Amino acid sequence: MTVYHPGELAVQRQLGQSDLAARLSRMVRAEIPDAAADFLAGQPMVVLSGADDSGHVWASLVTGPPGFMHVATDSEDAEQIVIDALPVTGDPLREVVTAQPRHVGMIAIQPQTRRRMRVNGVATPTGAGLLIRPDQVYSNCPKYISRRHVTGAAGSSGARAVRHAPSLDARMTRIVSAADTFFIGSTDAAGNADASHRGGNPGFLQVLSPNRLRWPDYRGNSMFMTLGNISVNPRAGLLIPDWDTGITLQLTGSAEILWERSTHAQCSVAFTIEELVELSGVSPLRWSEAELSPANPD
Predict the structure, then answer these.
(1) From CA 212, how far away is CA 208, in angstroms rounded?
(2) Phi, psi for 111 (deg, rounded to 5)
(3) Structural domains in the chain plus CATH codes
(4) Cα dist. 258→80, 239, 268 in Å?
(5) How far apart are CA 24 and CA 190, in angstroms?
(6) Distances (CA, A) of 77 to 35, 39, 43, 69
(7) Could you count the other beta carbons within 10 Å of the beta carbon of residue 100?
(8) What is the pLDDT of residues 237-261, one digit of tens each?
(9) Per-residue pLDDT tens over the stretch 60-108
(10) How far apart are CA 74 and CA 133, in angstroms?
(11) Among positive and negative, which fits the CA dihedral 43, 60, 240, 51?
């Protein structure tokens, strides 16, 4: 029995990586290894993704002191991930995950060590946080992750600014064009969610117009969880963090795979923005200047 859905299998065939993906499927499990539990417990942030009732996909940053995520067992002795925090007020995913159990994707990333871990499953609201019952747990390689270190934490600055817009303005365009990191949320045809990371040198996330973006898809783990989802459901959401200020840009819209190859990319993805949300004060963490990944193509 494969862990991949038809969209993932189709992309693997399209790019000639089916055999490698089949071998790597053994690393995907529903159980949470001890090393993964220890990794989660040490992280001060996580990215969640999911779809709202209209099908729009959002990706959100959730932060807390190390230990705010941890693994526990329920009354049936099943493992679950406890997150003692929620997306901030004003985040469109907050109402989604607090209303009822939802399929979510989750990626925990540690920029200092370029480590990351992904979990897909069902999140149940607890009032002050979430319980995630995992369906898929796996790690990814450190490729394309910019190294950063926490330099401090900002105090509360009072009311959080929330701005909704249909497209990018000039200031937002500068943030997007300077990004070396963003996160993407996607879902398959059945609504199962995934959250993933994309990284590269500044400029790899190209602004083609105020509501149209494009990025190269560099060679990764050959599973194609994200591209596989996009191939069967174009709805997707992007999260672009401003590491200096704690501001986030959340974009929701539709993605399209462009199959032409280049020297460094196996394909590219175009993204059409339908709505964006800019939130201030999402993260108190302040980070050092990025040390770009040596794996990034020029």
Answers:
(1) 5
(2) -60, -30
(3) 6-287 (2.30.110.10)
(4) 37, 21, 5
(5) 23
(6) 19, 21, 24, 18
(7) 9
(8) 999 999 999 999 999 999 999 998 8
(9) 999 999 999 999 987 666 799 999 999 999 999 999 999 999 999 999 9
(10) 10
(11) positive
